[in-house]
Amino acid sequence: AAGVIQSPRHLIKEKRETATLKCYPIPRHDTVYWYQQGPGQDPQFLISFYEKMQSDKGSIPDRFSAQQFSDYHSELNMSSLELGDSALYFCASSSRDSGNTIYFGEGSWLTVV
Amino acid sequence: AQTVTQSQPEMSVQEAETVTLSCTYDTSESDYYLFWYKQPPSRQMILVIRQEAYKQQNATENRFSVNFQKAAKSFSLKISDSQLGDAAMYFCAYPPTGNQFYFGTGTSLTVIP
Q1: What are the tens digits of pLDDT across the range B92-109?
Q2: What distance in Å separates the CA atoms of residue B92 and residue A52, rounded to the nearest whole number?
């Protein structure tokens, strides 16, 4: 079965640079989520989209933005990167038809140096 | 505020034995879902089991089962016949009606050969 696809899997950026992460949800899933997981931490919710509209916002820094496109893929844009942004970024998707079970991608590792 | 609490940062179990991981949550909702996710060293988030709050029967998936106590807002995970591959971080998760999942802080499970 198709899963959530994230790219790139690994990314190294310097401080103050910009990074963009991409996410392709499971086909026919109408909700996309972005999570950030720092070392030894639980996943922290950043933002979610339902049917291409932002539906909920968590602890997403103002330097970050995200959107969902007409083909339902989503992008997380991170600017003015800081060392503390180094983390594993998960995208997940769900469908109300599946009881809101969220399925995660394999994550994108961002290292800021 | 809705919260999820996992009071056991670390647990260990002998191979082939049974272990129970605890989770409590806080909600004012009456109809919702609860989830356990497993995160092995690869860091991928894998769905273990899902419970629907309106169902009195505890969910079971092979060696994994839950003890769901709705009135007590308790949702524990029981792993029977533990295997080395069960070693991972386990997160309890609760999605309120909005598009955001709340995760507990996780329980690190070690399986002793």
Answers
A1: 998 765 567 788 999 999
A2: 28
